[in-house]
Amino acid sequence: MSGHSKWNNIKNKKAAEDNRKSKAFTQLAKNIAIAARSTGVGDPNDNPSLRMAIEKARQANMPNENVQRAIHRGLGKGEGGALEEIVYEGYGHGGVGFLVVVRTDNKLRSGAEIRHLFDTHGGSLGSPGSTMYLFRREGGEYTVAVPLDIADPEVLEATRSLLHELETHDDVEAVYMNAIFPAEEEESVGST
Fold first, then answer.
1. Per-residue model confidence as pLDDT tens digits over 14-62
2. What is the pTM of this model?
């Protein structure tokens, strides 16, 4: 019986390791593509941010063909297509407004995944402009123009859960919301 158990343990460990590497390689490839896209230069000798992204990929033992594929995708060449930045707007549980900045090569897939995350956490994806009025754009970042205090523990938990799911999604660059958590208010008051 131990032979079966030993094989099963090895199989499970290998699957977990492969899953970890896959997530790391996906993030590294996205960083390489963004670095190549930002300057339009695919040569690491002429693009310092691309050189740094490639060095990090090499430290993680990412295959060279994956690196080259990511560079081509960032430059808009190859089969993957170019990365696009999209801002999704939606409402979470309790009317909390969200802006989700996504960088993806497949708008339909990313849109469906973001919509699913909102739906499973009691929210809804809105149309363009539905929550934009809740935020101001300052530089390259969004700041809250209309803050919303959350006192209900159920809304607080649902909002934190949705925020966590959005932040851990592979294509998501940044998540902004107009909710103010009670603990954050106490910390900000205590620090001044």
1. 988 888 888 888 888 888 888 887 778 888 888 898 999 999 999 999 9
2. 0.61
Query: What CATH code would you report for 84-188?
Result: 3.30.70.980
Query: Class of 2-74 per CATH?
Result: mainly alpha
Q: For the chain, give every domain's residue range.
A: 2-74, 84-188
Q: Six-digit token pair at 54?
A: 């490639």
The pLDDT tens digits of the residues spanning 96-148 come to 999 999 988 788 999 999 999 999 988 999 999 899 999 998 877 888 998 88
Q: List, in order, residues 6 or more apart from 59 with CB less than 8 Å away.
A: none
As a three-state string, the secondary structure of the chain is CHHHHHHHHHHHHHHHHHHHHHHHHHHHHHHHHHHHHHHCCCCCCCCHHHHHHHHHHHHCCCCHHHHHHHHHHHCCCCCCCCCEEEEEEEECHHHCEEEEEEEECCHHHHHHHHHHHHHHCCCEECCCCCCHHHEEEECCEEEECCCEECCCHHHHHHHHHHHHHHHCCCCEEEEEECEECHHHHHHHHHHC
